[in-house]
Design brief:
Elements (H helix, E strand, L loop, with lengths): L2 H11 L3 E3 L5 E2 L5 E2 L1 E3 L8 H18 L5 E5 L4 H11 L3 E4 L12 E2 L7 E9 L3 H12 L3 E10 L3 H9 L4 E6 H10 L5 H12 L2
Helix pairs in contact: 1-6, 2-3, 6-7
């Protein structure tokens, strides 16, 4: 089994990703969706979180060999960034959505020097805007953003366009297409469900 399929299977098994083609979820944004993803659940499964850290570390070694700092997105990317930075023996920072309202009003926590090359760790890519906001904050601080590595992507076209426009490479361990294929192979969805799930993604 490929890494993409293995990670997808793990996410399905622990219900980190749930498919409901007949009874849509409502996201925080109000969007109706046949899929719900909560990769925070992976923290509670040592083997799965090790598989994720190993997969991310291998991707980074291969595609971003010049990386100097690992950056986690607050909050879901933080634990995975910690495990990856430990595996790679690299410094870690994390980045908030916005600056704090008190103290030093930091948006970036940890030590980041101008000119350092950073890889961002994210748990999930939907539209990609939150990850790109983190990339903007890092660039404003003088860092060089090499790219984003995430566990899962919905593969929305708007995300692909956004990352392309911002010239930020994106790599994920698994994705929506692979997840559907694995769910079908496991008998969790049928052919009608597959059509519904693909139509939802393609119309966004």
């Amino acid at each position: 089994m490929t890494r993409e399929r293995s990670i997808a299977r793990s996410l399905l098994d622990i219900k980190a990703v749930s498919l409901r083609p007949d009874d849509y979820f409502t996201w925080t944004s109000g969007l109706k969706s046949p899929i719900y993803c909560d990769n925070r659940l992976t923290m509670s499964y040592p083997k799965i979180r090790r598989d994720i850290a190993r997969g991310m570390s291998e991707l980074i070694r291969k595609d971003f060999p010049d990386v100097e700092v690992i950056a986690g997105t607050a909050t879901a990317g933080i634990p995975h960034a910690a495990w990856v930075s430990e595996a790679l023996d690299l410094p870690m920072i994390y980045v908030r959505d916005s600056k704090k309202k008190h103290g030093k009003t930091n948006q970036i926590e940890g030590r980041l020097l101008a000119g350092q090359k950073v890889v961002i760790i994210e748990d999930l890519i939907s539209t990609g805007l939150s990850s790109l906001k983190v990339a903007d904050a890092l660039r404003e601080s003088g860092a060089i953003v090499l790219g984003v590595v995430a566990i899962f992507s919905y593969e929305l076209d708007r995300a692909r366009v956004a990352f392309s426009e911002q010239k930020v490479p994106l790599y994920t361990l698994t994705n929506y297409t692979t997840l559907i294929e694995e769910a079908a192979a496991g008998g969790e969805i049928n052919q009608t469900d597959i059509a519904t799930l693909l139509e939802w993604r393609d119309q966004l």
